[in-house]
Amino acid sequence: MTFRRLPLATRRQCLQSFGALTVASALGKTANASTLPEAKLLLGGTLASIPGQFGELAEGPISKGLGLDTPIQLQPDLGQDGVTAANLFDANEAPDGRTAIVVPGATLLASLTGDSRVHYDFGRWIPLMLARTATVVVGRIEMRRSFRMRIEGFFHNHSVRLAVSRASGPELSAMLGLTLLGMRPIPVPGFVSAEQALAALRDGTVDAVQISPCTMNIPLAEVLKSLPAGTAPLYQTGDISDIQAEQIPNFLEAYQQVRRKPPEGLLYQAWQGVSSSTDTAVTVALPMLTPPDVVMQWRKACALAVADSGMRHWAELRHFSLADGANAAPLLSRATPPLNATLALRRWIAINTPRWRSGQETRPL
Q1: I need a surface site. Which of 82, 96, 298, 306 has the fewest CB within 10 A?
Q2: Looking at the record's lineage, which domain of life comes first (predicted)?
Q3: What is the per-residue DSSP string for 106-161?
Q4: Domain count of the fold of the chain
Q5: Within a domain: residue 8?
Q6: E strands of the chain, at which residues?
């Protein structure tokens, strides 16, 4: 059999076509390798909780961003503080990128305070997205004086009854903050909602409350306008976008007005972690050692979720600010104080827990 030699131009065309097919095949294999066959969001709460609401809103955008053939699975938890879900996440989930966790700030706070149920380390997680909220501490003060004199007068080394859900609950941020500012707070437990706490402030049952706009059904501006007579905001933490709330001093400003110096020390470092945990409404994260290409894929998917109109509307109603990608990591780091500060926090809690149970004033270290 005689083989006829092809013209040079034809041979070049054949080689180019073969090369193009090879590159396309390689790209196809790479794309298929980076696409997860299935994925799951492990929710630190029921579908009605904040993590559950996030999961239902993010289901479509994240499924699209990950290139899933079927919608991402939502696995809710019966608990409300995310501790059970976080324990399962650290113990059972492989770092293959198939499972991301969605937990509230209570999960971070439980770890900081040394909750005996905690068997996870959120400091080892790879953050994908955070939703941040804010808190405002309101107290009964002398309204006829200037704002600076009110702040100084309120924090003048006397006891103050603070409405709390429980002694080591989210109001721990206000408990420790008021202690640092020179007060001797006494927790008054049993107030599960901001509305109940504000009613107790109005009735004189308590002297101070911590409110978070994300837990209330009315805008923060309306809450501040309708505060009980003789009360006013003392300081605020977190991310507040409300124009009226921006006029409230943050904790650092309030501290400098009272103490005439910037805050320092282990308990202040611990308060920064506690406050940041309290102001973190949602954390979305992957296990440590998840492959970088899979992490990048999840981050792109979370970016789609953040840009989704339904998600943004939900965040606006809840007074959340959303951060994804490289902006999420520093926010989670704020909730992780140095080890010696964490130990100081737990020692402070251990010293004061018996006092809180008997209705006594808080002691500093």
Answers
A1: 96
A2: Bacteria
A3: HHHHHHHTT-TT----GGGSEEEEEEE-EEEEEEE--TTS-HHHHHHHHTSS-EEE
A4: 2
A5: no
A6: 40-43, 73-75, 99-103, 126-132, 134-140, 159-163, 184-188, 208-211, 231-238, 280-286, 321-324
Spatial contact of 76 and 60, defined as CB atoms under 8 Å apart: no
Q: Token pair for residue 41?
A: 């969001």
Average the pLDDT over 286-291 and give the result.
96
Structure tokens at 121: 């380390």
Sign of torsion over alpha carbons 299, 300, 305, 307: positive
CATH number at residue 115: 3.40.190.150
Both 285 and 251 in one domain: the answer is no
- Rounded distance, CA 177 to CA 274, Å? 10
Q: What CATH number does residue 244 fall under?
A: 3.40.190.10
Q: Are residues 127 and 138 in the same domain?
A: no
**How far apart are the C-alpha atoms of 57 and 46, rounded to whole Å?**
14
**Beta strand 73-75 with 99-103: parallel, antiparallel or unpaired?**
unpaired
